Amino acid sequence: MIQALIVQLAQMTLLLVSAPLMTGIVRRVKARLQRRRGQSVFQPYRDLLRLLGKEAIVAETASWLFRVIPYFIFAATWVAAALIPTFAANLMFSWSGDLIAITALLGSTRFALALAGMDVGTSFGGIGSSREMMIASLAEPAMIMIVFSVALVAGSTQLSTIAETMLTGHVGLRVSLSLALVALMIVAVAENGRIPVDNPATHLELTMVHEAMVLEYSGRHLAMIELAAMLKLSTYLSMIACIFLPFGMAADPLRITDDLVGVLAWGCKMVIGIVALGITEMSIAKMRVFRVPNFLGAALMLSLLGVLLLFVSRGM
Amino acid sequence: MTGLVWAAPCFLALGLVGVLRPPGSRHLVYGGCALLSLVVLGIGVGAVWGPVEHLSLPVGLPGVGSRFRLDPLSGFFLIVVGLGSAGASTFGLGYTRTDAHPERVLPFYPLFIISMVLVVVADDAFSFLFGWELMSLTSWALVSAHHLEPGNRRATFVYLLMAVFSGFTLLFAFSLMAGTQGHFTFDAMRANPVVGTWADIVLIIALIGAGAKAGLIPLHVWLPLAHPAAPSHVSALMSGVMTKVAVYAFLRLALDLVGETHASTATVVLLGGGITAMVGVLQAILDRDLKRVLAFSTIENVGIIFIGAGLTLAFRANGLMMGAALALTATLFHTLNHTVFKSLLFFGAGTVVEATGQRDIETMGGLIHRMPRTALAMLTGCVAIAGFPPLNGFVSEWLTFQAMLLRPDMPQWGLKLAFPMAGALLALTAALAAGCFVRLFGICFLGRPRSRSAAEAREADLWSTGTILAFALFCILGGVFPGAVIDAMAPISTSLLGARMPEQIGNGWLTIVPIAAGHSSYNGVLIFLFILVSALLAVAGIHRRSNAIRTAPPWDCGFPDPSPRTEYSADSFAQPIRRVFAPVLMPTREQVEMPPPGDMRPAVLHRNEGDLFWDGIYAPLGHFVEWVSGKANVLQFLTIRRYLGFVFVSLIVLLIALTVWP
Amino acid sequence: MIPHSFSFDVAHTLAGMLLLCSFVLLYQVRLLALLHALALHATILALSVAWQAYIQGAPHLFITAAIALVFKAIVMPWALRRIVIRMGLHREIETVVGIGVTMLVGIGLVALSLEVMLPITANADPVAREDVALALSVVLIGLLMMVTRRNAVSQVVGFMSLENGINLAATGARGMPLVVEISVAFSILIALIVIGIFLFRIRERFDTVDVGALDMFRGGRQ
């Protein structure tokens, strides 16, 4: 019991502590590809610490929601991250929510952030919220359809069970799963506001979405939101790794050696994923906002196609 | 049962009080209704867990009388009626303070409640239809309470038309079930159920009849007209409770009275529900009238409920009783949830409309500062109806998804395709509902006031806000302790389907496990506590470092504008979604009229929003009726001889029909 | 029950990828990207045919695969690319209906072909059975693409993907003779040449390759 709790807490801490590093790596990769030297991979930690030490400036027109939401977003994202098996399946809290619950938790953070964007009553905040909800209106159903595909193959919506089923190797190659993987990548890009859907590096651009919503935030509130965004990126990468590449994951979290192997495997998967993300971001251009629905619509269609194939013929 | 026998005359007496209106009658009627509704709720709780009770009164159809019955399904819907009416009545105590015409509401209000109770406990076709029509008429009277306002008379007319249509269709369904033997009691119908193709036909007719009352597309047109017209506590009753009585009618017929139906009927119900949900939420996200948005959202939720009902029928048709029990539980859970949060939202809308004197959300803004209690409750309601954990709306949607994932290998090809389609529609609906309620809450309560009336709004009285906050608490409780609700509903599925979901109370940490451990589980308590603890930890950790705060004017990228006209409006918020979805589902045209350079006229954006169903179905139907009546008008100006000729010809035709008929 | 052998899985994945690639074709809005996607489409087809050749032990199918790879994946996209560049065509594809709607219809077509094919081939070999269902979807999507695009080049692309779908069905069904395959490949090549010349002719006359212009021309004569 105590041991299980310790392993669970270790997983949560690991995700939280490594999340800024992942963002640091992706920035570094992009900088190198642009033939800049780029910042240290540890710069996000310094940024967060700096923000945490500053006083927070709150707009006069803001309500109490504006100050509560950053903490809620952080907490809900962290809870979602805690439910994902990273180095070991069957962690202590893993059964308290399944993949649908994780999707909904991340959805609730978006709901909160969109409200925060509208709280001050400025035009930029509204534009960000409005676009975010448009993106969500297609990304979330696509995510649910991906969950359907995976759950039908694995016979469960519980991530630990899914990872174990995938590990056994009985699943084999499935058309639906490859469709789901493509769709999940598109959804992950959209949910994290990466290129080509949104550009995390810009400000003062009419196409921005996430940055427009957090425009009024500063100091510790901004630090919370930034940290939550980094955590969300790690969460999605871990989710992809856990569903499609569960190799090396410990089945029993109480065996420490297995856990260490799991941590190592997870680290490698994350670094590969993050480098791939950096390279992809560098090689494509940001889309116009009204091309995004087509992009996400494609993800929705693909995932729906995957589910259709599964429902119609169990062989796919 | 005896409790109900005593409660019914009390309701009638309260109606009489409403007619006579002695001093203090407002308090007497609403307070009395609240207490009696609590009694109804208590009776419902007893009926879900207790034995089936019968009662027969010697009034009504000759030879049949009026029969009543309390079984777990009736009990559940008595809880829904009791809870919703108790809330509406308590809310009404404060809300109707400034009502200029109490005489238009008070006499009908208690009758409306008792008519819904009557429908739910009726055990023969006559009392059922009597209750149904009484419900329609009293609610019609309540909708027309503010008949002097522009547009409201049209609303009442459309509502009456649709109510009559629904009653007529159900009458048709019951007469088919009664057969030539005249089985008007439900017991007789259960003993001799219609079977085969007739069962499917009866069920489709019942779907149309109940759907017209519940708001299934394309029979939903009265909802967005009638709900804004009625006073808010009545809208809450109509939306939160009366549509549920229609759901009851469908479930009673589908699961109890009609025999085994074919799987393709389940496909119709499933996809009908999915399309209703999708279209409802799309219209909700585009509308600007606070109460119309909620009315469209009711259509959406009714769609979700019917998706659940369709799943139940699909599983039952294939003999998968466990799946049917899961789907039925999800359906009923969502029914209960919708009663709670839609009542809450209508109460909140009522206080907002009362405080600002406006229904257009474009004139609101910043109400969270002026009405903090209402805002808190409305926020809870919005999160709950958008289906986010750890509140109750999420649990029922989650259960519906689990039911879809339970057995994908249905033998029928229609169902194989309908399951994923309904799943995709439900997922789209849930995501769009989130957008809709961000917009509703964000535009009304957040930001800066867009008009003077919003800037000077006052928080409502304690009766109103207390009721709203209590309902917000129910939303949290339902989401945090879903296992208890699921267990409480077990007798219903046992009595109707002979199967129930696994018992939840034994699972550790109050987890709910709908199918089997390792398949799927959800723990509302843990997630709720988890979020709370991590948020508090973050606050504690950070505030040790710094908790300095400075207020300043908004930054807005360096271009702050003091005029609230630069705020993002409700229409501009909905514009991206309109652009994405409207070409598929509704005929919306946008046209920009840009004056040439040098011209000082402002550019104008014309938006032409058609209603697919009104323009496509109802308007042509109306034209057709007008055309026919125009033609038939000639008949009013004939000679006596010709009229006699008509009578003669019809007599002959009838006689010939008699001879030809076997 | 359906065998979960490795060869079965690979065959399916390749067929599924072909279908996925058809959707990629539907999704493209730029001509050159469309041609790249077409090359990918043909490459997947070649891989799929080669895999069939391997598991069926039918060496003549390797030739089919080679033809697919050389002609369809390299020569034709290259030729079309040259046409596009030489004629300086407008690089955006003009669609008749929106991309979202087209994709939605595409999904509907897949559902339709599964619904049609799977029940009637219930007794057939499962590999062939689902391959045929997927191939029919590819064919239908190719047709859909020809219907919903205004530009003649993208209509050619639609036609090519349709042909790829037919090929997939034929190899999956174990029995297309080599002669047929070669003659089909050549007829496609000839079709390409004819269409190429045709394109130049349209372009000379109307300064556009929008096939809508032909309708206008006909209308003018009446």
How does the overall form of chain B come out from the CA principal axes? globular
Residues in β-strands, percent of chain B: under 5%
- The average pLDDT score of chain B comes to 89
> What number is the mean pLDDT of chain C?
76
What class would the helix/strand composition of chain C place it in? mainly alpha
* Poorly predicted tracts of residues of chain C: none
Whole-Å distance between the termini of chain B?
47 Å
Query: What composes the largest sheet of chain B?
Result: 2 strands, antiparallel
String of helices and strands of chain C: HHHHHHHH
Strand order of the largest sheet of chain B: 1-2
Structural commentary:
- The complex is a heterotrimer of chains A (about 325), B (about 650) and C (about 220).
- Chain A is mainly alpha-helical and about 325 residues long.
- Chain A has one domain (about 1-310).
- Chain A contains 11 helices and 1 strand, in the order H-H-E-H-H-H-H-H-H-H-H-H.
- The termini of chain A are far apart.
- The mean pLDDT of chain A is about 90.
- By secondary structure, chain B is mainly alpha-helical.
- In chain B, helix 11 (about 265-285) packs antiparallel against helix 23 (about 570-585), helix 13 runs antiparallel to helix 15 and helix 13 (about 320-355) runs antiparallel to helix 16 (about 390-405).
- Chain B is globular and about 95 Å long.
- In chain C, helix 4 runs antiparallel to helix 5 (about 125-150).
- Helix content of chain C is about 80%, strand content about 0%.
- Chain C is mainly alpha-helical.
- Classes of the chains: A mainly alpha (about 325), B mainly alpha (about 650), C mainly alpha (about 220).
- Chains in contact: A-B, A-C, B-C.
- Chains A and B meet through strand 1, helix 3, helix 4, helix 5 and helix 9 of A and helix 16, helix 17, helix 22, strand 3 and helix 23 of B.
- Strand 1 (about 55-60) of chain A pairs parallel with strand 3 of chain B, so a sheet runs across the interface.
